[in-house]
Specification:
The protein is an alpha+beta fold. The chain folds into 2 domains: 33 residues; 53 residues, no CATH class. 22% of the residues lie in helices and 29% in strands. It is built from 2 helices and 5 strands. The strands form 2 sheets. The protein has a 3-stranded antiparallel sheet, with no helix packed on it. A hairpin with a 5-residue loop joins β2 and β3. The chain is rod-shaped, with a radius of gyration of 25 Å. The two termini are 30 Å apart.
Length: 105
């Protein structure tokens, strides 16, 4: 399926009812329109997932006054669907597009 930025979702059943309701076309044209509607590609249902988070110690990039490296606790996340890692807890996974907020398994 080709992804287009101007893609919009339509209700195929409502469109089909409108074509059947409009009787100004002959049967061949109506059948052709119905075939186009029925043969149109559909999108996948919304994938849902959740973030698995963990806290780890991360180097902050500087040293304290004694020359020791400075570490701090940081939170990281991994998509349960595609295993993509992120430091930001997005509403959608930037890798697989799954909607986050699903129940943890």
């Amino acid at each position: 399926m080709v992804r287009r930025d101007n893609m919009r979702l339509i209700d195929g059943n409502t469109l089909r009812d409108e074509v059947l309701y409009d009787n100004t076309y002959d049967n061949d044209i109506v059948n052709y329109y119905l075939w186009l509607i029925d043969d149109a590609p559909t999108i996948d249902p919304v994938r849902r997932s959740h973030w698995n988070g963990w806290t780890t110690s991360a180097y902050m990039g500087w040293q304290d006054e004694f020359g020791n490296p400075v570490y701090a606790d940081r939170k990281f996340y991994r998509c349960d669907n595609c295993r993509h890692g992120s430091a930001i807890k997005h509403n959608f996974c930037p890798s697989c597009g799954a909607r986050m907020g699903g129940d943890p398994k």
